[in-house]
């Protein structure tokens, strides 16, 4: 549903009509008023000023600002008696918005609103039926048909753009808008405005919003409410946007259907994956927490689900805000999820991930179901890549399923290897368990290691580092976190052994590939923007 500027436009229309009516009545007793300021000028300027006041009253959000600016540009052209073609009006409004807010280019709403307006202009038949007296049912039917046509055109045209911006397209958006726009325009907004003079009407408006919310939630609950597709490269995405516009323009169908050829490559784009026998490790930037995506040629595993951002029951988490958008952007369906232990910075996003990826096999060190526990000795092989659980031992679980060790010491330790290169992921394992593992399997090596406990001084013990001899260490920690991770003593251990390391605040999301073991790719370097803080 997209009606962000609709209430401002409706208010501006009502305000313009009201100012014009008042001005003409005033002219009966003060005729010189019309000579000084003609009614069109008074109504136009007054309508824009009142719309600006209303937008300020409603919070002065970015969509409201954009709507007010566009109204001011259009009214200014009308009052100057200039008949510009619609592309010129559209470009002028866009230029004014960008002159006052250049960062609007980075907002999805900017592109959605301006592209939608351009599509409506471009597909306008340009001819109006002669005025005739018809019954109100017929007028209502014509209005509904016109609304359905406009919404259908905008829905088709914006589908590739929404895929480009959000990696998804709402399949129930047309039905939602057809229900929401008349409801908000004809009921909610008038009741909210009249409530200024009759406050009890705000209760009625609140009831109307509740009914709409319940209806939309019901639509959103439909299993096929949205179509998720991997994010396509920019060239393919821009071609798809052009194809969506071509499909709805008033051109011969033979030409319009050519738009499908432009949409097709982006719609069925598949991101590249590792070759058979290779694997990829992507350490997400989730702040003070852990979430790592491991991918082989045809399988994927998520190690930890990121932190929960707050203590409130409705607090957001990295699973919903970081992990799931990444999985959708890559077109991933997880085969397995390993949650190292129950601490919130590792398991905070588990509920969101599990709800979105119900097909995945789950392993953790705190699940009461024995079949869903990580236990040393568990092994499986995907596409020529071996996955082995090294810790905890079965004896570390009590009869009630609870760990006999601390939560950190019970962390699931996973090793991934293709026989040549390997990755070692240890959750928040403490030094005592690190030493035990190193002495039990002294032959194990690690090309890349996820720093245990985010680089805490209680982990990354010298014994473990000497045994694994990692070529790279990736530290997942928060910017200026209160724990001072990674600890200076741990960083010194890395330096003494000549081990290069990267951490989330300076690297962002870190990617390591077994096919290119000598490099860790930092998203903050490859995708740097001028407003990015260096993270020091």
Automatic annotation (TrEMBL):
Residues 288-479 form the Metallo-beta-lactamase domain. It is a multi-pass membrane protein. Its main location: membrane. The chain crosses the membrane at residues 6-23, 35-57, 63-81, 88-105, 152-174, 180-197, 204-225, 231-251. It is found in: Cell membrane. SUPFAM superfamilies: Metallo-hydrolase/oxidoreductase. CDD domains: ComA-like_MBL-fold. InterPro entries: ComA-like_MBL, ComEC_N, Competence_ComEC/Rec2, Competence_DNA_uptake, Metallo-B-lactamas, RibonucZ/Hydroxyglut_hydro. Keywords: Cell membrane, Membrane, Transmembrane, Transmembrane helix. Gene3D superfamilies: Ribonuclease Z/Hydroxyacylglutathione hydrolase-like. Pfam families: Competence, Lactamase_B. NCBIfam families: ComEC_N-term, ComEC_Rec2. This is DNA internalization-related competence protein ComEC/Rec2.
């Amino acid at each position: 549903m997209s009606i962000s500027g609709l209430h401002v436009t409706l208010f501006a229309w009502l305000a313009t009509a009201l100012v014009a009516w008042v001005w003409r009545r005033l002219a009966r007793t003060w005729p010189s008023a019309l000579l000084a300021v003609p009614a069109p000028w008074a109504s136009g300027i007054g309508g824009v000023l009142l719309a600006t006041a209303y937008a300020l009253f409603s919070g002065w959000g970015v969509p409201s600002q954009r709507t007010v600016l566009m109204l001011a540009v259009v009214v200014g052209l009308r009052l100057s008696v200039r008949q510009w073609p619609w592309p010129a009006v559209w470009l002028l409004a866009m230029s004014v918005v960008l002159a006052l807010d250049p960062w609007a280019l980075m907002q999805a709403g900017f592109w959605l609103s301006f592209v939608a307006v351009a599509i409506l202009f471009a597909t306008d038949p340009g001819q109006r039926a002669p005025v005739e007296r018809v019954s109100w049912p017929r007028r209502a039917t014509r209005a509904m048909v016109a609304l359905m046509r406009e919404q259908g055109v905008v829905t088709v045209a914006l589908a590739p753009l929404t895929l480009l911006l959000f990696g998804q397209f709402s399949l129930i958006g047309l039905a939602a808008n057809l229900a929401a726009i008349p409801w908000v325009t004809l009921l909610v907004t008038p009741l909210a405005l009249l409530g200024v003079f009759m406050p009890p009407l705000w209760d009625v408006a609140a009831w109307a919003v509740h009914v709409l919310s319940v209806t939309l939630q019901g639509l959103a609950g439909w299993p096929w409410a949205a179509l998720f597709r991997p994010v396509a490269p920019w060239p393919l995405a821009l071609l798809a946007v052009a194809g969506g516009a071509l499909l709805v323009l008033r051109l011969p169908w033979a030409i319009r259907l050519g738009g499908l050829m432009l949409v097709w490559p982006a719609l069925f784009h598949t991101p590249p994956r590792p070759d058979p026998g290779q694997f990829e490790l992507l350490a997400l930037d989730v702040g003070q927490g852990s979430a790592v995506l491991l991918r082989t040629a045809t399988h994927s595993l998520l190690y930890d689900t990121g932190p929960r951002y707050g203590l409130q029951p409705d607090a957001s988490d990295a699973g919903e805000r970081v992990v799931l958008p990444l999985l959708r952007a890559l077109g991933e369906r997880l085969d397995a999820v390993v949650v190292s232990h129950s601490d919130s910075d590792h398991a905070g996003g588990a509920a969101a991930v599990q709800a979105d990826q119900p097909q995945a096999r789950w392993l953790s060190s705190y699940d009461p179901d024995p079949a869903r526990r990580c236990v040393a000795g568990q092994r499986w092989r995907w596409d020529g890549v071996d996955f082995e659980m090294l810790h905890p031992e079965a004896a570390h679980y009590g009869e009630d399923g609870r760990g006999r060790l601390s939560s950190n010491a019970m962390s699931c330790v996973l090793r991934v290897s293709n026989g040549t290169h390997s990755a070692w992921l240890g959750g928040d394992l403490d030094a005592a368990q690190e030493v035990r593992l190193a002495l039990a399997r002294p032959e194990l090596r690690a090309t890349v290691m996820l720093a245990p406990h985010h680089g805490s001084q209680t982990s990354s013990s010298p014994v473990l580092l000497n045994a694994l001899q990692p070529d790279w260490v990736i530290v997942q920690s928060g910017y200026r976190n209160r724990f001072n991770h990674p600890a200076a003593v741990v960083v010194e251990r890395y330096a003494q052994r000549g081990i290069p390391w990267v951490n989330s605040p300076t690297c962002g999301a870190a990617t390591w590939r077994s096919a290119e073991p000598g490099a860790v790719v930092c998203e903050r370097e490859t995708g740097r923007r001028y407003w990015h803080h260096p993270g020091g």
